[in-house]
Amino acid sequence: MNRHRHLTGRVVIATHNPGKLAEMRDLLAPYGIDAVSAGESNLPEPEETGTTFAANARIKAQAAAAASGLTAFADDSGLVVDALGGAPGIYSARWGGPEKDFRMAMNKVQTELVAAGATAPERRRARFVAALCLAWPDGHLEEFEATAEGTLVWPPRGRRGFGEMSAEQKHGLPPRGLGLSHRARAFVLLAQACLKPQ
Hints:
Shape: elongated
Low-confidence stretches: none
Structural class: alpha/beta
Distance between the termini: 27 Å
Order of helices and strands: EHEHEHEEHH
Radius of gyration: 17 Å
CATH topology: Maf protein
Number of domains: 1
Mean pLDDT: 87
């Protein structure tokens, strides 16, 4: 049986995205983990050549661990739509164009669904997927994946997305939030296996 390794001390979060860094720091803070980002450390961004969310999270975490000499934490996530054969999938960010515009991406999803004749709710099943990876400099890996299932509605409701919940409700863990997002659910699995509350 494979035993999980506990994360302690300092970790590098394999992202150059300030918003994602803030979210990850917030999740790690109750466990006494000091987090720096790949961007702050001037680490290069590896090419994401994986064919799954897990593979791309692994690529980012391993690259950051190798470049920094620290344990690295990476995620990869996106939207998987059944009627589109799993698209946009690992290419979700690209569907939003250079600015990674979520509304642009959802407009494209809607256009593709209409073209596929997927207008009834039962044909519009989809899920957000999040894969998390912890990579140690010695090559040890811990990997976790979770989903948030749903049905795509059109037009989008409100301006905050995800059922009009606040970011804290979506991503925050109890008791502050509901931990309902795909990333929060994956983080719960990681925390149960690799983190100890302070």
